[in-house]
Structure formats: structure tokens, C-alpha cells
Amino acid sequence: MTIVRVADSHDKQRWDNFVISHADAGPYHLFAWKEAVESAYRHRAFYLMAEDRCGSVRGVLPLVLVKPPFLKGTLVSLPFCDYGGVLASDNETNDVLIHTAVELSQNLKACLELRLKKPENLFQGLPRLSALSHKVRMVLDLPKSSGILWNGFKSKLRSQVKRPQKDGFEFILGSTDLVNDFYSVFSTNMRELGSPVHSRIWISAVIRSYEGKARIGIVYDGKRPIAGGIILECNTTISIPWASALNEYSRSSPNMLLYWGFLKHASDNGFIQFDFGRSTPDEGTYRFKEQWGAVPFPLFWYGEGLSRSSGQEGLSDKIRPLIEKAWARIPRKVTDTLGPVVRRYISL
After folding, report:
1. What is the rounded CA–CA span in Å between residue 288 and residue 293?
2. At what angle do helices 312-329 and 179-192 cross, to 10 degrees?
3. I need a labelling partner for 79 at 20 to 30 A (CA). Which of 47, 221, 282, 347 fits?
4. How far, in Å, CA of 298 to CA of 132, rounded?
5. From the centroid of its chain, how far is CA 195?
6. What pLDDT score does 311 carry?
7. What are phi and psi for residue 246, nearest 5 degrees?
8. 229, 243 contact by CB (below 8 A)
9. CA dist., res. 111 & res. 72, Å (int)
10. Phi, psi (rounded to 5 degrees) for 323
11. For residues 347 and 79, is the Cβ–Cβ distance under 8 A?
């Protein structure tokens, strides 16, 4: 008999132990993501944990309710990242957890959205969940040392990494001490892209919640931060959820030094995979990640009433450039204040 209940703070260690033991786990499955979401954005989290009669954990399904004021909410696994979804020891537990999520979404009168690394046959019995996205995550298998990795790069790529070093730029790896420097680059870059930025409180909450499993990397021009990123660790994989560089330095390619700094750290510290994160095939970020040797793995996102053929994706493609252009023209003081307020309700 399988019992499903909502995990609380006392279950953190047992939850994480199960996550770490599961082959399909990623850093977003860890309890730290729940702590960051609740602390920074005050969203309600429903972390479903399945146990057997003896109290052993058989599966987990992290869910977060993202509900804008006056609008219908969405129960997401998971918001603000590439994937979440079920981790289970067997198909029966997997099935129970997903059906519990469906019942929970109905009770909350919310839509349900599940973001997965692998497709699920169980959705054959859940016709109201359809394909929502056809993006990929870019993953690089790492050798045993950064030297081997470096020697495997093409000469053009190596020269691109050396360029910012020749310009005197320096890569530094740290933690909470670098939050402000990262955020100065991140917020500037997001505004130029026409996108509302996550709050500084959110970034701080992620770094604090993940403790030693989260790091910040910064590229400096003297004392000025000009590129930055965040990496999260889980088992033998490092994932990078956010990275940015100042556009005015694009000719010097500080982002190349940033990513090399992260890859060097990962290779020299026993990690065997580097997850560059989500991209759309053949777009700019996809090609950037591909040049490092990363290969695409499909992401399987499922939601209610959305699909590529529904026309909503095409409408978004038409409207989005106009919104981004307008946002980039709003005064910086306004976007810095309004951006985080809006961003907390954008689950992507």
C-alpha cells in the first residue's frame, strides 16, 4: 500500500536522500528549491511524498502553485527552471503520484503543468494534459580533467576563451559574497533583453537554500563585474540556471571565460555532466552551447489545453517582440522595481 502526503520541513533530509539516490534527479528536485520559492516569492508548495507501509520513501513529486492575483493558478512541477516531475521507485508509485497531483489541481481549481526530462506513458490516461513545449536541454559529458576537455576543443573555441583573458579579465568563483555583483549584471542584461528580472531576494534565497551546492561565477574587468552565472550541483551533474553578460563587452566575449570557468571547475572536481540548460534548436543560445560540445536532450512539458498546434505559441511569437521592445524602453528605476513583482508570476 502506498501512502501519499505533503512533505514538510522535517522531511527534508529523507526527501533529499531519495532524490540523490534516483538516476533521473536534478538539482531542482532538491528540497532547497521549495525553500527558495517559499522564502522569496511566498508561493504555496505541495511536495508530494509517497511512502510504503514501513515508512520508506518510494517516490516524490514537487509542485508549486503559481497564482497571479485575480487569475486562475497553475500547479507547476517546477516553476523557474527546466524540469521537475516525478521521481519514483516503480511505475505504480509514479502513477499514484501523478493522479494525486491531478486531484490536487482540481481541488485548488488550478491548471496542472508537469515539466519532465523523459516522456511518460501514463499520460495516455490523462487526455487533458497535452504537449506544451518542444525545447531541449543541452548537456556536455565531461572528461576526468579540464586539461583533457581543453585539448578537445577546436582552436577557434580556445582562442575565444583566451581573448577575454588577454584583455585582462578575471574569473572568480564564490557564493553569497558575489550575489550583488551577479545581480548587477543579471538585472542590466534582462532589461536590455526586454524581460522582467527575478528579484535579488530570489537569487539570494537560491544560493542560501542550496548552501554548498550552489556557486556564483563572475568575470571582472578590474573591479567591475561584466558577466556572471549561477551553478547548482546534484550528484555528478552541474546545471546552470542563469547566466548573463553586459552587452557593451560583447566584442571581448566575457561569457566565454565565464563558461570555461564553470566547465573547468566541474571537470576538475569529479562531475561527469554539465547541463547548459534550456534552448530552442538552431537559435543563438543553442548554437552557443553546441560549440562547447553539448548535445540536445528533449524536454517534455505537459499542460492543460496547450499544444504547438493550438495557435497560442504563434500568437506569443508575434506579441513577445513588441512587449520586449517596450519593456527595454521603460526607465531603469521602474523596471528594477516592477520587474521582480511581475517575474514572480512568470513560471518560465
Report:
1. 10
2. 110
3. 282
4. 12
5. 16
6. 35
7. -70, 130
8. yes
9. 8
10. -65, -45
11. yes
Contact criterion met (CB below 8 Å) for 31 and 211: no
Per-residue pLDDT, 310: 36
Name the one residue in this structure whose C-alpha cell is 512539458.
301
Q: Which amino acid is at 314?
A: G
Query: Which grid coordinates belong to 252?
Result: 571581448
- Residue 165 and residue 171: Cα distance in Å, rounded? 9
pLDDT at residue 336, as a whole number: 84
3-class DSSP assignment, residue 174 = strand
- Location of C-alpha cell 513545449: 133
Peptide bond into 193 cis (omega under 30): no
- The grid coordinates listed for 72 are 486562475
Number of neighbours of residue 53 by Cβ within 10 angstroms: 8
Region class of 78: left (phi > 0), else alpha (psi between -120 and 50), else beta? beta
75 cis-preceded (ω within 30 degrees of 0): no
Question: Please, what are the domains in the chain?
Answer: 3-126 (3.40.630.30), 137-297 (3.40.630.30)
Query: Can you list the residues of the chain whose pLDDT is less than 50?
Result: 307-315
Q: Is the pTM of this model over 0.85?
A: yes
Q: Residue 245 has which C-alpha cell?
A: 553578460
Q: Other CB atoms closer than 10 Å to residue 80's CB: what's the count?
A: 24
321/208 Cα distance (integer angstroms): 34
Q: 111 is written with which cell numbers?
A: 491548471
